[in-house]
From TrEMBL:
It comes from Seonamhaeicola marinus. Catalyzes the insertion of molybdate into adenylated molybdopterin with the concomitant release of AMP. Residues 172-310 form the MoaB/Mog domain. Keywords: Magnesium, Metal-binding, Molybdenum, Molybdenum cofactor biosynthesis, Transferase. GO terms for biological process: Mo-molybdopterin cofactor biosynthetic process. It catalyses: adenylyl-molybdopterin + molybdate = Mo-molybdopterin + AMP + H(+). This is Molybdopterin molybdenumtransferase. PANTHER family: GEPHYRIN, MOLYBDOPTERIN BIOSYNTHESIS PROTEIN.
Length: 392
């Protein structure tokens, strides 16, 4: 049995970045990291552009101008302005080459084909210059940039439809147990509804990992071997829930050994999640999580999250840890460090009731885990605690 820091270090040291590129449509690349620099194919804006509704002017010394035309967004014509002439213009419209400033409409009075501006303005005022954001051929976004909705909008505004990005891991979730049935079926005596697979799937989706396959295994050794072999051969990361303990019908450990998954560690001095397994088969990372739902989800956030971030090449690969003041009391039983479900708000943290590893009710209300180290046996109101903020 190893310590939590040793387990975290082992995960970090045994998962590597996926270096294969893949091409994605820009609109489907949210959460991916650019594999190479993206060069702008155009100037943005591609023409001198009005920053507001108003009047484009060919400046002269007088405050009065003759109004000769109108330019809307999308117009392709080019009115020619002489000194002292103006055109009505709207936000985003192309500014005529012969105009050299725009006065906002709130500072203009119009009357029978002429306008009067309130005061003189500077050359090029309220005009977005050609290529203000990026010029043709310049780097629009650098290699390694994480694509966000704003980044996707930016690339699409440049006319870019596809990008080369780092491949995200393919992931398998394997659930084990004769007692498990699908929600919606009749709950007969001795059965429970299976929730771990969809819970972990939801956690992955929230982190923008979408290439996920779910496998179901009953308590049969040969089937366990076959399904795990299939999942491990087809994926970059495999999560197994249940079957990793030492009961007569816990076949996962034996199956992983037969498949020749190399054990990195098995069992961590922690609560919940002591019977956690992490191993490697070629380049595939394999986690065997506890079957209890709260324990499985805690291990996902503390360990699997790190592996996923490493695979994406993200240097900050742990969830954010901060300190906060306890508003609760807690008595820790035993000598194992614990991860407690909690609610963190404005510097204060409330420890939840119902910390049992099988209980999801309080986890459903939590936005944080509190880490209680081995040497601390009691938490009192006012104590400073280490907090792991969960993804929202």
């Amino acid at each position: 049995m190893i310590t939590i820091p040793e387990a975290i270090a082992s995960v970090k040291n045994n998962t590597n970045r996926l270096v294969q590129p893949t091409t994605k449509p820009v609109e489907k690349a949210n959460g991916y990291y650019l594999y190479e620099d993206v060069l702008s194919p155009i100037n943005m804006p591609p023409f001198r552009q009005s920053a507001m509704d108003g009047y484009a002017l060919n400046l002269h010394e007088d405050l009065n101008y003759n109004l000769i035309d109108e330019v809307k967004a999308g117009d392709g014509h080019q009115p020619i302005l002489k000194q002292g002439e103006a055109v009505r213009i709207f936000t985003g419209a192309p500014v005529p080459d012969t105009a050299n400033a725009i006065m906002m409409q709130e500072k203009v009075s119009a009357n029978n084909g002429s306008i009067k501006i309130e005061h003189q303005i500077n050359l090029e005022q309220n005009i977005r210059p050609l290529g203000e954001q990026v010029k043709q051929g310049e780097v629009a976004l650098k290699k390694g940039t994480k694509l966000t909705p704003a980044g996707i909008g930016y690339l699409l505004s440049l006319g870019i439809t596809e990008v080369s990005v780092y491949k995200k891991p393919t992931i398998a979730i394997v659930t084990t147990g004769n007692e498990l049935i699908e929600p919606g079926q009749e709950l007969t005596y001795g059965k429970i509804y299976e929730s771990n697979s969809k819970m972990l799937l939801s956690a992955l989706y929230s982190l923008k990992f979408y290439d996920v396959t779910i496998y179901k295994v009953v308590d049969d050794y040969n089937q366990t071997v076959d399904i795990l072999k299939t999942a491990i051969n087809a994926n970059d990361l495999v999560m197994i829930t249940g079957g990793i303990s030492v009961g007569d019908y816990d076949f996962v450990g034996r199956a992983l050994n037969e498949i020749q998954v190399k054990e990195v560690f098995y069992k961590v001095k922690q609560k919940p999640g002591k019977p956690l397994f992490f191993g490697k088969k070629d380049d595939t990372s394999v986690f065997a999580l506890p079957g209890n739902p709260a324990a499985a989800l805690s291990c996902f956030y503390v360990y699997v999250y790190i592996a996923l971030q490493n695979m994406m090449g993200i240097e900050t690969n742990e969830l954010t840890r901060i300190t906060g003041t306890s508003t609760s009391k807690f008595l820790k039983r035993g000598d194992r460090p614990q991860f407690l479900k909690a609610i963190y708000t404005n510097g204060e943290v409330e420890l939840m009731e119902g910390q049992n590893s099988s209980m999801l009710q309080t986890f459903a209300l939590s936005n944080a885990l509190v880490f209680i180290p081995e040497e601390i046996s009691e938490v009192n109101v006012g104590d400073e605690l280490e907090i792991i903020l969960l993804p929202v």
